[in-house]
Structures are given as C-alpha cells and as structure tokens.
Design a protein that fits this description.
alpha+beta; Gyrase A, domain 2; six-stranded mixed beta sheet; 19 strands; 31% strand; globular
Length: 338
C-alpha cells in the first residue's frame, strides 16, 4: 500500500493498524454488509509479484503446483509453491495478463518469496518485480458487484476465475459475487469513489471473512511450511496438477494423493473467542500434541470468530476440540466440501 493510497483511505474514514484497514468506523455493520449486501474493501493484506519475460511461463510451470502452461491470457488459477518436503511456502492467485503473470500472495510473505524465487531464475529470461506501491488491490463483493463495476466503467469478466483488462488495471472474477480490481496506485482513488455508488466501504477483515466463507485458505507467515496442498483442499481449487512434470515437492504431493495418506483436512471453524492464523487446535484425548492449526481467521457477522482450520480427521467427531491451548475456548468444525 503506497503512502498516497493510505492517506486517501485515512481521509475516507479508514482505521488503519500496521498497514491493515481494520474498518471504516463500524466494524460490526461492515461485517453484516459483507454477508448481506455489497461491499468494497481495500485488500491491504495482499501483495503482488509480476513475473515477465520470454521464459516466464516455463519458469512458473516448473516451480508452482498448478498447470501454468495451459493458463490462457486473461485467465486466473489458484496455485502454491512448495518446499522440497511438499509443504506450502506460499499460496497464490495467478492471473495471466497478456504474456505476463501477476502472483497475489499474503503481504507478509512477499519479501522472502521474491528473494527465494529469484534464486531459481539463473539464466532464464525472467523478471520478478515487486508491485508493492505500484498497484493496489480492491475487493468488491455482493449482489450489486457487477452493477458497481459497470457503473464505474469497468469490465465484468465472463465468469469465475477469468479476468478482463482495462486501461489502468485488470478486473478479476473470483465467483458470481466476488471480484478484485487490481489498479495502478494513482488511479485507485478514482476507482474507489466510483464503486461507492453501489457498495459500502468495509475493512479488510470483512473481506477476509468472505474468503473464509468461500473456503479459500491463504498461506501466511504464521502457516508457511505447515501444510501439504491437499490438507488445505488446494487440489479441489484446481491449484494442483497431477499430470505435469516436476516442481519442488512434487513427489511428496503426488504420493500423498495416490496413496490416500491425507489425514488432515480443511474445516470451517467457529469459536466465541478470538482466533488467529497459526493458533493450534487441541483435543482432550491428546492434549500433549496439537491435532490441527488455524489457517485464517476473522470476526464473524453473527458474533465470535470464523476460521479455516486444517485438522486431523480422527479427532473431529468427538466435537470437544479447543483452540490456542489445551483447555482453551471450544471450537466447532464443519468439513469444507466443494
């Protein structure tokens, strides 16, 4: 988030804490609007790398878990980058814009991931560019989202996981009611003002709740190297190809799939107490060792906190799980299915 965008949001009523837009003055009502109405939100928890150059497609295809070679222009896919042990270092939303690729990831991971990716470029004709400050990401969600895009003079992509470019950026369709606008930093305030004709401003936490509701995990600093992609349901998002060649961790990811060794799965979680990414989940049956971990969490519109959590399935049925510490607050789980 560049300084001018932050100043603009602050002047528009945003309450900003350590770079995260907490709310626009009424967090509770904003959460309810995220559930029931149409909101526009600055996605300051996300950052973006641009990967370009003649060898960009082959480079990403050899590094990421998804089938980048078959990603057509103005198409979008979920993906991940794994360690040699098959554990996710980062999760991405990959957007192809012409010959180039935009990789969205958790902002707290960007510096380390950019450096590590650069190590693998070697002699390839690939440029990896940090877009922090140059482009801003705006979330738009709700029944009037498409109308808001049209009212702002922005294109409406053809369907889920497609994108449409415009003069200063690109619109991404995540599903029938959720969109992102990736826009040049100096054009972001004008786009924001136009969208307000159909949408209520809401803090980033409201958008994070929408992502939890959609069942889409985001790997962050607190959860890097904790999960094999299938534990987080990434194969169901189309983020893992089992038909392409080698990439870091590919052997372990494939073995996990074909031998059916996934014992931890993705659940929607709810607790009356606050939850945060990286919080451990415990069972009274075995309080010495966690049986799961929170991947993402946000305040819930109905009260309490909602989360996505990866939990060992053998402990779920008892229904007596606790979050953060043995004997901690109760957490209720529902398996994420697609």
């Amino acid at each position: 988030m560049n300084a001018s965008w932050q100043d603009f949001l602050g002047a528009s009523g945003a309450r900003i804490d350590q770079g995260l837009v907490m709310d626009f003055g009424d967090a509770r009502t904003e959460l309810l609007a995220a559930r029931d109405a149409t909101i526009v939100s600055p996605l300051t928890h996300l950052a973006m790398l641009e990967v370009s150059g003649a060898d960009a497609t082959g480079f990403l295809h050899q590094q990421l878990t998804s089938d980048v070679k078959h990603l057509t222009s103005e198409a979008v896919q979920h993906s991940a980058w794994c360690s040699a042990k098959g554990r996710m270092l980062a999760s991405f939303l990959v957007v192809r814009v012409g010959p180039d690729y935009q990789l969205q990831l958790s902002a707290d991971l960007l510096p380390a991931i950019a450096r590590r990716l650069q190590m693998f470029v070697l002699r390839s004709k690939v440029r990896i560019t940090d877009q922090t400050g140059g482009r801003e990401i705006i979330g738009l969600s709700g029944a009037q989202a498409a109308a808001a895009l049209q009212g702002a003079g922005l294109p409406v992509p053809a369907g889920a996981l497609t994108a449409s470019a415009f003069a200063t950026g690109v619109v991404i369709c995540l599903d029938s009611q959720r969109f992102q606008i990736v826009v040049a930093g100096d054009a972001a305030p004008a786009v924001w003002q136009h969208l307000l004709a159909h949408a209520r401003p809401a803090g980033t936490r409201a958008w994070q709740w929408l992502e939890i509701d959609a069942g889409v995990p985001l790997i962050s600093e607190q959860t890097k190297e904790e999960f094999v992609p299938q534990m987080a349901g990434f194969e169901q998002l189309g983020a893992v190809s089992f038909h392409k060649g080698c990439y870091p961790g590919q052997e372990i990811v494939a073995r996990t799939q074909y031998l059916g060794k996934v014992k931890r799965h993705l659940y929607r979680a709810h607790s009356s107490a606050p939850m945060a990414a990286g919080n451990a989940i415990y069972s009274p049956e075995n309080p010495q060792r966690p049986c799961g971990m929170v991947a993402n969490a946000a305040p819930a519109p109905a009260g309490g906190y909602d989360a996505l959590a990866i939990v060992q399935e053998g402990f779920v049925d008892a229904g007596d799980l606790e979050v953060a510490a043995p004997g901690g607050p109760r957490v209720d789980l529902v398996r994420v299915s697609r």
